[in-house]
Amino acid sequence: MEETQAAGIVINDENARCFMSKNLDALFNPTNIAIVGASGNPLKAGYVILQNLINIGYPKKIFPVNITEDQILGYKCYKKLSEIEDTVEMVVLITPSQMIFEVMQDLEARMKVKNDIKVIVCAAANYGETKTEEGIKRQSCLMDTAEKYGIRVVGPNCIGIIDNINRVDTTFVETLLPKESRGIRGGISFISQSGAIAASLLMLGASQPAPISFNKFISIGNMADVDFIDLLDYFEKDADTKVIGMYMEGYPEGRKLIDTLARITPKKPVVILKVGRSEVGAKAANSHTGSLAGADAVYDCAFKQFGIIRARTIEEMMDTLQAFDSLTLPKDENVFILSQAGGPGIYCTDALSDELELKMPVIEEESKRKLEAILPEMANVCSPEGYADITAAANVNHHVEALRIIMDDKNAGSVIFITVVPTFLPREELARGLAKLLKEEGYIYKKPVFVSIMAGDYVWDCRRILEENGIRTFSTPAQAVKAASNLVKYAEYLKSLDERR
Amino acid sequence: MSRFLNELDANKLLLSYDIPMAKSLCCRTAEEALIHAEELKFPVVMKVLSPDIQHKTEAGCVFIGISCKEQLEKTFRLIMENAKAYNPDAVVDGILIQEMAEKGLEIIVGMKKDPQFGPVIMVGSGGIYVEVFKDIALRLLPIDRYDAERMLMETKAYHVINGARGKTYDMEKLIEVLLSVSKLIQQDDSIEEIDINPFFIYEKGKGGKGVDALIKIK
User: Looking at beta carbons, which residues of chain A come within 8 Å of B114?
Assistant: First the structure.
């Protein structure tokens, strides 16, 4: 700030925003990282952070800081931050919280000489969130020092950040993801107010048929500085971010948050898992990250009003984020159910009827005739309308060609495709047949198709082939319906904006 | 310190934003009451006019269908007594003589300032069972016509308005009222809370009329 003033520039909101987002650039793409509290003990977070940074292939320099060790994982260890000669833009703090006073003193010593640190990621907990005098004092020490030097702070009480484009991973979460699967580009950027939810999402994402690689991922903990709005502003402008996901418990400036979200939703979708829906849940949220949960009904109406997608469960959120990332938006609310079996088809129809936004279309007579001509005799074509059961007698070709006919029909806005693979249907061949149609022939770009291949490990490889071809699969038809419904809601919101202009 | 407007002032404020309210006149004596009642034509409604008594029905200070001079005089005294009994410290501005508005579909229109979100508008099924049915929809203010339509569509009342029982009600008037509340809040920052319940809406093309309104100001 001092520099800007010296140059005679008036600091208005826009300038302040530029200044702050510059430091957020250092958050996602820092020149060199120091890990204060790095450890040689594989059971400690300070070890996992270093390992994750190495595994993701962070291309710049890493400096572990630890008083007792000389070397960790082949990296030279420093006793103090102030000893590091190279530039350090990011400091990850994972020391016991009681040491914050010493660490900040040393950081000040460094800043007076080098003035290079731009971001602190304080992963350690036991700060302001404890609401104890000691905890609050520790957080103030961290924040006062940071503010003095214009350093942005993430946390405390968070699991860190990941950027798969710039290959940064400061988290202490072990996802068991093999090295070669790290740093894959994805379109989902995620902000979590809970570290544990963040960790479980990373682990869950890593355990999909094809792992979900987030674009940018951040756990914000106590939001002592960097908060939802800073990151939303950043993700709004980030061309690599296609869809934004959030887990939130509360935010004190509700209206400001909604105004920020309302500015973003015309450009890219935002999916939020907002907890504290029940009165008891809201109380739990208050005592958790110390945030104001806010009246849930008001959040709910604001989300509806500004096209923000509210997910009710972790599964719904993950499915919806993946759907936004990998599929085009539907042109209307009509969803055709193409099932290989009666039971799952009816189950799906029930789930679809629960979604008031969705309708089942009457497809063209021509499509019905084509389906009847190619499918096994026992197949049910459009009874009820918008529904077809190709039956267990259907072979791979029946699956692929039936899907082609529906994808070509202009009355079907989206398609839910369900199959329970019987023993006599070759799984891999099915996956390859579908991948050829959707990916190679480009059908996936025509309209959204939600593929649910049931169930469990038996069809895992089949789903993996599809997912590796960019066709996300859903564990159950009900999950496919939720994702389909959320895409329709968002598409309808965009349409309403056009109509209102 | 926030305070409530008395009903007459609340009505006047709403009327100035084209929100139709039942015609009301204030009186301080039984003689004045009679002049007003004759002007509005019997039967009339009588209510206490006090910023300190919000739950007028509970206080025994609302009487409807007052149809003659004798009844009017008796009710005048009764309201004064009941008000005193309910809250001896209440400032009583007078008694409100209100036209007996034709009954319509009961709707509630409200606005409240949320500490985190600012002004929030509400619409839904009105009447005395609002709390029981909880058939309401909310939006942050300001709203446009699209928002007003969408929030109405979220309520069950919407289906009744749209002719679920054969009769179609004046949706357009209701949308106008919602937009008027939005405009009012944008222009007048001092208003903390509005509660119009019931707002009667009539058959399509025949508009609507609010018969009870509560406004809290800063």
Answer: 254, 294-295, 298
